[in-house]
Design a protein that fits this description.
single chain, 463 residues, alpha/beta, Aspartate Aminotransferase, domain 2, seven-stranded mixed β-sheet, 17 helices, 15% strand, PyrdxlP-dep_Trfase, Class-III_PLP-dep_AT
């Protein structure tokens, strides 16, 4: 057995640059990537695990090492990402885990879905990036596909790399179109961590050290349409203006929080009444995650602007976008360079996204999510009765589920217990006592049952 890795060694990185070592270190990993899996030696695997840990300590962020169960709950070499397929991850040492974390919603079609990987590889062999001058067919075709998938009159869009970029772009579009500057978002809402998106985010721990952020942003309780209307009225009374109301259909990082059924219809009415744009942040809820193609589909509401990310690239390539109606998008036409990106919507990402849409529809991933989500909630509700005092609630829609516990300590013990039993999950960023159940939408029932058995075994042990 290898010795446990518990703390970083002393930092011995030389102060100057070393070109020869840079080349050697880069080549070492490139060679390992190209080595067939069966030919990677045990010595090389241990080097990868050990050096990855040390590199986090020396070159990324030591703080991550204190929060990752892959370090704190692993007895031997730190758990190191290496390969995965479907809903199973395997670390570099060969240890397997059932994945119900889903890359925080990234892996909706599963890890390395063959159709999506094949499309990305095929495009890579043709052209990996744009010329930046010729018209790019994949981006154009993907925009047409998204326009046909989305509700209402959504027609035009812009592709980027991350959900945060999509939110920032939506904010710029709303300000350009309305000529107004203010926004309303929700407490415990999560929209990203760039300075623009962070201004909307509803938790102090991420905001306070970076204040002041954008002016004119007001947060109200999620699910309270009256509070939204009151906030707009208050803004108008003091001479402020509101460009948009931005909300997640179901709050993800707050712990899979569902709004009342009249919430989204009322938001639509309120925004129309006060000539404010309604912006749906579908970065986590979009493309089947909640049991519908988009989260807003649960309430039959058509937003003015929609933000996408995470699953859009099929878990293969980073991909995001924000889309709106022709009427609103008109403000972008006089100067199409008002919002640009060099790599957003690149050919490989668009190929992956187009393939992701085919998988979404052909495999009815939204339908699978709805059915499997209800199955999991029913089984865990029974456990809640069986182990009183350990589970507070199971909630959410589709396979965006939050399993809440009475306190943070129990939540961590359950997550750690699942990890020690070969199940990968984590807490939500804005609600530490809730762990997420957010697996691939096509996760087999056999694996779901295995996860639930391991969860019950964990609860038995805690009891």
């Amino acid at each position: 057995m290898t010795k446990a890795i518990n703390t970083p060694t002393t930092n011995t990185i030389p102060s100057g640059r070393n070109i020869a070592e840079a080349l050697s270190e880069a080549q070492k990993m490139v060679d390992l990537i190209k080595t067939p899996e069966a030919e990677v030696t045990d010595e090389e695997r241990f080097w990868i695990a050990k050096s990855t840990y040390q590199n986090f300590a020396d070159h990324l962020n030591k703080g991550f090492l204190e929060y990752r169960k892959s370090v704190t709950e692993t007895k031997d070499a730190a758990l190191t990402d290496w390969r995965g397929e479907g809903s199973v991850l395997q670390d570099v040492m060969g240890r397997e885990y059932i994945d119900i974390l889903g890359g925080f919603g990234l892996y909706s079609p599963g890890i390395r879905h063959p159709k999506i990987v094949a499309a990305a590889k095929a495009q890579l062999d043709r052209s990996p990036q744009y010329s930046q001058e010729m018209l790019d067919p994949l981006r154009a075709q993907l925009a047409k596909v998204i326009a046909k998938l989305t509700p209402g009159d959504i027609q035009y869009g812009f592709f980027a790399n991350s959900g945060t970029e999509a939110v920032d772009g939506a904010m710029k579009l709303a300000k350009l179109y309305t000529g107004k500057s203010g926004f309303i978002s929700t407490l415990k809402g999560f929209h990203g961590k760039s300075l623009g998106a962070l201004s909307l985010l509803g938790k102090a721990v991420y905001r306070k050290p970076l204040l002041p952020l954008l002016n004119g942003v007001r947060q109200v309780p999620f699910g309270d349409a009256d509070a939204v209307e009151q906030s707009i009225r208050h803004a108008l009374e003091v001479g402020d203006d509101i460009a948009g109301v931005i909300v997640e259909p179901i709050q993800g990082e707050a712990g899979a929080i569902e709004p009342p059924d009249d919430y989204w219809p009322r938001l639509r009415q309120i925004c129309d009444k006060y000539e404010v744009l309604l912006i749906a942040d579908e970065v986590q809820t979009g493309f089947g995650r909640t049991g519908k193609i988009f989260g807003v589909d649960h309430w039959g509401v058509a937003p003015d602007i929609m933000c996408f990310g995470k699953a859009l690239g099929g878990g293969v390539i980073a991909m995001s976008g924000f889309f709106s109606t022709a009427k609103i998008w008109k403000c972008m036409e006089p100067n199409p360079f008002m919002h640009t990106t060099t790599t957003g919507g690149n050919p490989i990402a668009c190929a992956a996204a187009l393939a992701q849409v085919t998988v979404l529809l052909e495999e009815d991933l939204a339908g699978q999510a709805a059915e499997k989500g209800e199955y999991i909630k029913t089984r865990i509700s029974a456990m809640k009765e069986k182990y009183p005092g350990l589970i507070s609630e199971i909630r959410g829609r589709g396979l965006l589920l939050g399993l809440e516990f009475p306190d943070d300590e129990i939540g961590y013990k359950v997550a750690a217990g699942l990890f020690s039993r070969g199940v990968l999950t984590a807490g939500t960023l804005n609600n530490a006592k809730t762990i997420r159940i957010e697996p691939a939408l096509n996760i087999p029932y056999t694996l779901i049952d295995e996860v639930l058995e391991r969860l019950e075994d964990t609860l038995k042990n805690l009891e």
